[in-house]
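Show me a record, fold above all:
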Amino acid sequence: MLNVIIVDDELLARENLRCLLENDSQINIVAECNNAMDAIREIHRLAPDVVFLDIQMPKINGLEMLSMLDPQTMPHIVFLTAYSEFAVKAFEEQAFDYLLKPIEQDRLNKTLSRLHKKCPIADINQLSGIDQQLKYIPCIGHNRIYLLSNDDVFYISSKVCGIYVFNQNNNEYFTELTLKTLEDKTSLIRCHRQYLVNLKKLKEIRFNEAGSVDIILNNDVAVPVSRRYLKSLKEILGL
């Protein structure tokens, strides 16, 4: 049995694919999403075997979304699009397959046949070639998605309730991206198990009497530095 998530901003496209997939008794559709942020959350929550991913979506397209996923838990990706010119780019990203809309049952069956042979054993190196750096960090607000430029980010904190991005005014924005993905795909530096920091915003490093160390940012916010990361931080700063 393959657990599948469908990601497409068009309702009719999702319904059509669902009907085609339901002809295969070994397919279990665990979620349908109409945007990238919902999809990232559901992928983290449900750990599907396969994601059928539309390329042309508003705000964050399928290729951009792919670069935001943790490669260590990456499902098999089958791209969907109405435009054949995206095929080369899709396979450059080492997609499992590429389906041209409108999707035909015979062509889909060939993809499913290959998936049944490949899954459920995950090939975590399937998309290891994706090293695209994030141009922005997608964050969720009330009924909207904020796309924060890396240059506007001062630090990122991992809390019990999730990952939060902070700007100059110390406003916090929730993101579905993992701390590991943000560390790998941005210029932010790990200074603590729960913190990433933008060294471009560095004001000073403060060594406290109790032995703790803080990074003081340009907005006077203190971000803790753990002993584990202090040495590498000094090396980066040439100290």
Remarks:
- The mean pLDDT is 89.
- The longest helix spans residues 105-118.
- The helical segments are 11-21, 36-46, 62-67, 87-92, 105-118, 179-185, 227-237.
